[in-house]
Amino acid sequence: MPRLGELDLPDRLAPAVPRAVTQIGFGVLCASSAILMRAVLDVLAEGGAPFALCFPAMMLATLFARWQAGAVAAALGIGYAWYYGFAPLGSFRLIDAAATVTVAFIIVAAIISVAVAELFRRSVRRATRERDREIAERDLLLQEIDHRMKNNFAIVASILDIQRRRTDGEAAEALGAALARVESIARAHRHLYRSAGQVDAVDMQAYLGDLCAALADALLLRGGVSLSCSADAANMPRDRAVSIGLVVNELVTNAAKHAFTGRTGGTITVGLRRRPGGMTLIVSDDGVGMPQMAAPAGPDHGLGSRLIPGFARQAGGTLSSESGPEGTTVTMDMPGAMPA
After folding, report:
1. pLDDT of residue 123
2. Residue (of 261, 208, 212) closest to 236 by Cα position
3. Which stretches does DSSP call E strand in the chain?
4. Least packed by Cβ within 10 Å: which of 114, 201, 233, 289?
């Protein structure tokens, strides 16, 4: 919304309304408002200072419609007050030297007021143009950074994918896991720049939905095994969102690989929920059960299991898990992790 001094009515209404018409019309409007207020005050409490309301009217006209509107408001306001409110009433005649000096002082003061208001309006306009130029330059720089980051992520992902395709066994599996982690970070970066009005926050609903869809495709979760994802509306800081995405990536990958051994079907569920004082991430499955994720990872655990606690700490969360014959539930409690 334009601030005082930034709203230029002649420019805003042109070319539908000629600038001169806007300036004259707004000047008349401001002067008429001052005259009406003067009449109301005279009815309630008749007194002196007939020129007092002329100055706010001419300054307001100048700020919003340039000095020409201020000059119109000054001429009409001062002329009305001189004729109807300055002795002798109903005349422009000056009865003595003091009256002449008073009127001359009012006219000079009006000229100075309009000039000051016009200088202020122009300085605000210059500052606004400079601000808009800096914002445009910043947006251009951010677009360039975004483009370069996307290219960098794409190059790294392509290299990992090429290496994965040329190897097999555990090496291919490890490269595939690394590729999934890189893509998770890249996906958070994309959602960061899609968030309107946010320069350092990620829409978690869109991000987790996109991430889960990509995981379902990458892990071939079709047929009997399905992945569902839901999240409360929240914008999270970029670094925390990346860490949460990496935790989800590792937990879902582990569940897809190990939770349904010997079974033909099952469900993996991902949820991000608000709670008083923070947020909670819940990843659960209805598989055969898994080792406690919160326990210290030993050499017999996979790399993903050893990375999860580190990612959780980066997200500012604490891990806990429950596992049994009916499945595993891993919870990451994030106190103070309120949406940005």
Report:
1. 92
2. 208
3. 201-203, 225-231, 235-237, 266-275, 278-285, 318-324, 327-335
4. 233
